[in-house]
Write a structure and sequence with these properties.
The chain has about 325 residues and is α/β, with parallel strands linked by helices. The protein has two domains: about 180 residues, Thiamin diphosphate (ThDP)-binding fold, Pyr/PP domains (Rossmann fold, 3-Layer(aba) Sandwich); about 130 residues, Rossmann fold (3-Layer(aba) Sandwich). A seven-stranded mixed beta sheet has the order 3-2-4-5-7-6-12, sandwiched between helices. Strands 9-11-10-13-14 form a five-stranded mixed beta sheet, sandwiched between helices. α3 runs parallel beside α4, α8 crosses α12 and α9 packs across α10.
């Protein structure tokens, strides 16, 4: 075991998979000599060379389209989109090509790319360096969408994604990169895709989240225990699509209450889908309305600190929703 930050875990996973499988290569803006905008690929150019760590032009569409072609030719590309805010030039390649390749070929072709995407706010990045947009891709069948919340999962899920034969959107929250550390195995391991985790067991209320807001939800759960002696069970979705509904439905059946937390806009965010699933399949278990803690429906995120704080999810906002649910 080694103590790693989230960004260290990403770097370790990339290094191990490139050493294990010569068909794995990286492509993206500034990932080579610079080592990536956040240093996720630091040292990999020197270790694996320019043929496998490719500095690309500022052209997201080219990055993803070339990766799809390489995947169809037998490679396992790991392209990087430096900020999700700039992913729109690649939308056709992602949603019309990568996502549909297996379906339109009747299963005869696959597209094993792992598209690493930096997302999220709470770092003062302003409008074009703080967006989430995970729901754009959750809506597209054929894509696996992953968003780990801790270093252990970041490494294990990234290794599993690279080995998977489906196109995987791997969302990395920039606030997590250096804000937390934990012990991570230096030996080979994977974390299964499409499986949620119980991040904190509890019996009184279920809180469901992912990514950075999962950490805020854990903080809120501890406050609820200290203030009200309420045990909050926290579910980490980990894979957003295809979603593991069984884990949170079993939790809601036990606690009879649900609060969903995510950083994206409220309307048609993942919370709406989770809430609909609970309403359809666990309505008889509920003792209180399903509540959501989200960003408002404004372009995210404002650069001004006061406005950013107003728009972002916080532990205090989650506590208020948990208290409201328990009041019913």
């Amino acid at each position: 075991m080694a103590v790693m930050t989230y960004i260290d875990a990403i770097n370790s996973a990339l290094r191990e998979e490139m050493a294990r499988d010569s068909s794995v290569f990286l492509i993206g803006e500034d990932i080579g000599k610079m080592g990536g905008a956040f240093r996720a690929t630091k040292g990999l150019l020197e270790e694996f060379g320019e043929d496998r760590v490719i500095d690309s032009p500022l052209a997201e569409g080219v990055i993803v389209s070339s990766s799809i072609g390489a995947a169809m030719a037998g490679m396992r590309p790991v392209p990087e989109i430096q900020f999700v805010d700039f992913i729109t030039p690649a939308m056709d390649a992602i949603t019309q090509q990568a996502a549909k390749l297996r379906y339109r070929s009747a299963g005869t072709q696959t597209c094993p790319i792992t598209l690493r995407v930096c997302y999220g706010g709470s770092v003062g990045g302003g409008l074009y360096h703080s967006q989430s947009n995970t729901s754009w891709f959750i809506h597209c069948p054929g894509l696996v969408v992953v968003a780990p919340s801790r270093p252990y999962d970041a490494k294990g899920l990234l290794k599993a994604a690279i080995r998977d034969n489906n196109p995987v959107m791997f969302f990395e929250h920039k606030k997590l990169y250096r804000s937390m550390k934990e012990e991570v195995p230096e030996s080979d391991y994977t974390v299964p895709l499409m499986k949620a985790a119980i991040a904190r067991p509890g019996s009184d209320i279920t809180a469901i989240s992912y990514g950075y807001t999962l950490q805020l939800t854990l903080q809120a759960a501890e406050q609820m225990k200290q203030k009200h002696d309420v045990d909050v069970e926290v579910i980490d979705l980990r894979t957003l699509a295809p979603m593991d509904t069984d884990t949170f439905l079993e939790s809601v059946a036990k606690t009879s209450r649900a609060v969903i937390v995510h950083e994206d806009n409220r309307t048609l965010g993942i919370g709406a889908e989770v809430a609909a699933t609970i309403a359809e399949q666990a309505f008889d278990c509920l003792d209180a309305p399903i509540l959501r803690v989200t960003a408002p429906d404004v372009p995210l995120l404002p650069a001004a600190a006061e406005l950013e704080n107003f728009c972002t999810v916080s532990a205090d906002k989650i506590v208020a929703a948990l208290e409201r649910s328990m009041a019913y």
